[in-house]
Design brief:
By secondary structure, the protein is α/β, with parallel strands linked by helices. It has helices at residues 25-40, 63-72, 91-104, 121-127, 131-136, 138-149, 177-186, 201-211, 235-254, 273-282, 291-305, 319-334; strands at residues 10-15, 46-49, 78-85, 109-114, 170-174, 190-192, 223-231, 286-289, 309-313. It starts with 9 loop residues before the first strand and ends with a helix.
Length: 336
């Protein structure tokens, strides 16, 4: 069934606990928790946090710890990972961590899984020296996680306690057709990282839907693309606020991962043409403007992707403006 109306689909938040200039990691984490409480009242379905390491501007490295902190402060919102980079970890330890979360917050925990390092190669080596072998084992390790979460695992020699029987729902995250093949083969919901890696979005969604095999968790394909969204009262104000996002992505291109800076009047004073082109390519699926502008562009995106749910990343320097952007987005999603 086509879901061309925005009011037909769920909407959620991806958060990295981004550290802004002048703030500490503790400030960033507490602002994330405040945001979660805010969006829970606005009808958002999920609030996911992502694993990143060795980045001065991101405080979400201990993802499962933050998920517990946010879940404790909310009541109905599903809290999860977007994602945990499974090759960095033992599947058993992740099953225990998320099994503990699911025991404390029943039917509210999601486990999104990726295979990227979430950092630079040197740090990836420090996290786990045999990481490249674990990348090859990613499909098997996902299935191992499913086993640990199942009630049937009680007869096994190795058990995840807490975790066993919690049936924590797994999601596959990806930015290529490789992940689409895996999500389809395992019959798991699929999240695409179109907020920073848009190139293979449509090809991956086609592969996923064509190859999908029903599973105990999911009968039909379920797609949740992630996009960047910045909404303000006017297009001009939103474009101004978006310069902080552009500076943050410029840091990815240049390797300078400093805390997110305040908006600037003119990005041409900040980046060169090569950096501008690289950032704009990464930010292809970024919706910036007034409610009307974003609604028109997002409606077109949803129609073309036939998304079941939209996950939004909103990077704005001023916390109040960020809260406002999420409020305006929820208004868009609830308009008939």
């Amino acid at each position: 069934m086509s879901k061309n109306l925005l009011s037909d689909i769920k909407y959620s938040v991806l958060d990295l606990a981004v550290v802004t200039e002048g703030d500490s990691p503790a400030d960033a984490i507490n602002k994330s928790r405040d945001l979660a409480q805010h969006v829970e009242q606005l009808g958002y379905s999920r609030f996911w946090m992502a694993e990143h390491h060795n980045m001065e501007n991101i405080a979400s490295s201990a993802t499962s710890v933050l998920i517990g902190y946010v879940a404790e402060a909310t009541n109905t919102l599903r809290i999860g990972s977007g994602g945990v980079m499974l090759p960095n970890h033992s599947p058993l330890v992740i099953a225990e961590q998320f099994g503990t979360l699911a025991s404390l917050y029943p039917n509210r925990i999601d486990l999104g899984l990726g295979r990227a390092p979430g950092t630079d190669q040197q740090t990836a080596q420090a996290i786990r020296p045999d990481r490249m072998q674990q990348v090859q084992q990613f499909p098997r390790n996902v299935q191992q996680l499913q086993q640990y979460f199942s009630a049937e695992n009680r007869s096994s020699d190795v058990r995840a306690i807490p975790g066993e029987g919690t049936e924590v729902p797994l999601w596959i995250l990806g930015s290529s057709t490789d992940s689409a093949h895996l999500a389809a083969a395992l019959g798991l919901p699929y999240v695409f990282a179109s907020h920073f890696s848009p190139q293979q979005l449509h090809a991956a969604l086609q592969v996923y839907r064509e190859k999908f095999e029903p599973s105990d968790q999911l009968d039909d394909p379920y797609v949740m693309p992630c996009v960047n969204v910045i909404i303000a009262d006017t297009d001009e104000q939103a474009q101004y606020l978006s310069t902080s996002l552009k500076q943050m992505f410029m840091g990815i291109v240049t390797g300078e991962r400093k805390p997110m800076g305040p908006p600037v009047d003119d990005m041409s004073t900040v980046w060169n043409m090569r950096e501008k082109m690289a950032v704009e390519q990464m930010l292809k699926y970024t919706f910036v403007g007034s409610k009307q502008t974003v609604k028109e562009e997002l409606s077109d995106f949803v129609e073309k992707t036939n998304a079941d749910e939209i996950m939004t990343a909103t990077y704005i320097f001023d916390h109040d403006q960020r809260l406002k952007s999420h409020r305006l987005f929820s208004e868009i999603m609830n308009e008939k």
